[in-house]
Design goal:
Neuraminidase, mainly beta, five-stranded antiparallel β-sheet, globular
């Protein structure tokens, strides 16, 4: 696999018009959400020790999980025809060294939907996995440090919010990512499902212990090239980026990762490198950011960046 890293240096320049005399100025208006001050830039440095070749084919989603108290793993899932293949990389652990080699496992899938796993998110000690067709499965840790399925596949919403046949792939909204915020947050949306074909983040809520597309709040439209949106993520609930929403894009948008303003949909690019075509993004409890590539091989290219300066304002 090629390990070419295309580093994009993006500069934001802000200019303000000249002001007249003080006595000529009208009273300062209250700032609307769209005019609130921008968050300061995030500074990131590539981690050369991260295992670039991840032992999972066609990486499609990533999230930090906790299989045992104090054991933090980065989980990376694989998409269609891989039957629930995952890889786990130890971020840190109370009784062992960090940076252990990644290990592999299989998620126990049910036949109610396809194995085209595209989005993954960890919330309240449970793992939610979304297929491109709009099916959600849920998993939880068992007493042996593995994941067991505790909810079979169900629709995230009725068609057209999901495909008529959940066993189909790349249909309907064609979901490419799932991101869920901390359960301590008070925002209406528990998170978002990322639609590749519509370039939108679809608000999802927890209703009767199931993820559902919110029938009230409209999708958040992102100004991105067609079919370039590839994943979304919130920072880990206990980390410095807990309130930060990011998305990443594939080769059609230069494999760029952005912070997202949830009020306006405004995108602020992060000054980091990317894989040849980003497919997954995650932020762990230390504030480190990861991106992965979906390649037609038995391993997937991954990059890790140690980041500081995460700040965001409350979500709507």
């Amino acid at each position: 696999m090629s390990k070419t890293r295309a580093t994009l240096v993006l500069c934001l320049v802000c200019a303000s018009p000249a002001c007249g005399k003080k006595e000529d100025l009208p009273p300062a208006p209250a700032l609307s959400p769209a005019r609130l001050p921008k968050a300061p830039p995030v500074a990131c440095t590539a981690d050369p020790a991260f295992p670039a070749d991840f032992p999972v084919p066609e990486a499609s989603g990533a999230a930090e999980i906790e299989l045992r108290p104090g054991q933090h793993d980065l989980l990376v899932i694989s998409d269609s025809s891989q039957h629930g293949a995952i890889a786990l990389w130890r971020i840190d652990i109370l009784d062992g060294p960090p940076n252990s080699p990644p290990r592999t496992a299989i998620l126990p899938l049910d036949p109610g939907a396809s194995d085209d796993l595209e989005g993954v998110a960890w919330r309240d000690h449970q793992l939610y996995v979304l297929t491109s067709s709009g099916a959600v499965r849920r998993f939880a840790p068992d007493s042996h440090g593995a994941l067991v399925r505790n909810q079979d596949a169900y629709r995230i919403g009725p068609p057209p919010s999901s495909c008529r046949r959940l066993t189909d792939i790349n249909c309907g909204p064609n979901y490419e990512g799932l991101c869920l915020r901390s359960p301590r947050a008070t925002a209406r949306c528990a998170g978002y499902a990322a639609s590749k074909d519509q370039s939108t983040l679809v608000c999802v809520v927890l209703e009767n212990d199931h993820l559902r597309v919110d029938p009230i709040k409209p999708p958040l439209h992102l100004r991105l090239p067609a079919r370039s949106l590839s994943d979304c993520a919130f920072g880990h609930a206990d980390g410095p980026a807990a309130d930060t929403l990011v998305v990443t894009t594939n080769v059609h948008d230069g494999s760029t990762t952005y912070r997202v303003d949830e009020t306006t949909g405004e995108l602020t690019p992060l000054d980091i490198g990317g894989t040849p075509s980003n497919e997954a993004v995650a932020i762990d409890h230390t504030g480190a950011l990861y991106v992965f590539m979906d390649a037609n091989s038995m391993t997937s290219l991954g990059l890790r960046f140690e980041c500081t300066g995460w700040k965001s304002r409350s979500a709507p």
